[in-house]
Amino acid sequence: MSPEALLNAATLADLKRGYLESTDAYTCLCCGERVEKGVVYPVGDRLLEAGRYIQQHIAEAHGSVFAHLVALDKQAHGLSDLQRRLLTLFYEGKSDEEIKALLGAGSLSTIRNHRFILREKERQARIFLAIMELLHERQSTGGATGAHGGKRSRSGKAPADQRSADDAILARYFPYGPEGPVQHFSTAPLKHKRMIAAVVAQRFTPGRTYSEREVNAVLEPIVEDYVLLRRCLVEFGYLKRLPDGSQYWRGDVDEEGMKQVDRRKELKRLAREAKTEGGVYQVRNTRNGMVWIGVTPNFRTLNGQRFQLEMGSHRSRELQQAWNEYGPDAFVFEPLEALEVPETGPFDRDAALRKLKQKWLRELQPFGSRGYNLPSELEEETP
């Protein structure tokens, strides 16, 4: 699942803490890193349970949830570059006087006016969220409601045709009805995925054969990760297919076969669909050839590093000073090596990234006149 799809699936509470929580894992909203529950993760000389480890991962890999969210493209949050910079400075605790000096603003009243505009956006956003939630609640309950939000009989009891528990679950994933798009599919528990697949299967005509392209044409408009949904339809028996995948058709579910599915293996296989590529990268000064070596769990989040430099808040003081001196046009971001992730078995991604960074620090020696890393970042090799 892409970081964009993860953000779309997140609630406000999820966005603030920076990760999604499912029955068996935590998933980082910044890069898609998946941390399984029930596993103890080594970090230096400490051992952290999964909940603490995902927080540690976000702090080390992304700085903060705020920094990642504010660095997203304008399409994600609707903020202008000036508003993003102002919010970053507010978040850092800068005074209006300091912000005026940093931005070269004409007067303190200009900064205060920006604060007022941002508070207005916040107020409007809260009201808009309330409006949309009320709309979704109305649609999910299937029609008009009374003054207190639901139909009631004279006795005060819910009517006999009230939605079943399964219908209530499905309403969360089909907020616009069973013929509409599917939301939050990739992060749904396995049993909910099966319920969703049963509904989606009704969109295929019994007795008709479909090519893979035709199946994708049905699924792609309704769900972000249509490949995952297609595989679930097949795994759960709602679609049958030839071994070479050339033809699909609607089929009956083999209940006995489904009882024998290894749930844990299934969850791990579905999680592999959401893999992201990370590794070591360099920020290279094209004017003098000096470089800074960094690591990321997801190369697609490098724009966040660029934004931190533009805001003057990058964790490398040496790189930040060079950026301020030469300007952003003098620097390029270049991947050096992708991290190889094993298909099976335990894997500490953060430890592997640190090891990979050490390899490139020793190879390039980006210290002093050769780069912006500090010699203290180079750890002693263990025999």
From TrEMBL:
Q: Where is this region: Disordered?
A: 140-162
Domain of life, per lineage: Bacteria
Q: Where is the DUF2087 domain?
A: 191-250
What is the name attached to this protein's record?
Answer: LuxR family transcriptional regulator
